[in-house]
Amino acid sequence: MEHYTKKNFLTTQSIGYMLTKARNMVIADMDAALTPLDITSQQMGVILWLSRGIAATPFEMSKHLSIDTGLMTRMLDKLEANGLLKRSRSNTDRRVVDLKLTRKGEAAAAEIPDIALPVLNGRLRNFSKAEFEELQRLLGKFIDADTRR
């Protein structure tokens, strides 16, 4: 089914505009809240993925966070300069760089939920439980549409 036509396509009502606007608002709120940790919301993603063992190399991180390798390298440079992570060559494949949180990085990872949850819950404060679950379901369906082509 085609939902948009030339007659009903209003830029500020398009899904692309609304998703981008929502993302930008969450990022602005999250970046402001993360100031005490001296990290950005994108850097928060790297720290969380590492702390949870979901990704351990720059390539895996780029893939999971949908960030190009150039931006990933710059983010890792900053996180390493701030003492939050260390990079080292893999013992099994010298072409691979392994990422590991430092103690400071682990401490930051432990603080992130206390900072991030109020930001997200603040944006969702006007949603009922059912609306929140429906939003999650619909966004999941929207994201999964890409994998069904």
Write the layout of secondary structure elements.
Layout: H1 15-33, H2 41-51, H3 58-65, H4 69-81, E1 85-89, E2 97-101, H5 103-123, H6 129-144
Antiparallel strand pairs: 1-2
Helix pairs in contact: 1-5, 2-5, 3-4
Describe it:
By secondary structure, the chain is mainly alpha-helical. The protein has one domain: Winged helix-like DNA-binding domain superfamily/Winged helix DNA-binding domain (Arc Repressor Mutant, subunit A, Orthogonal Bundle). The chain has six helices and two strands. The protein has helices at residues 15-33, 41-51, 58-65, 69-81, 103-123, 129-144, and strands at residues 85-89, 97-101. A two-stranded antiparallel ribbon has the order 1-2. Strand 1 (85-89) and strand 2 (97-101) form a beta hairpin. Helix 2 packs across helix 5. It is globular and about 55 Å long. The relative contact order is 0.11.
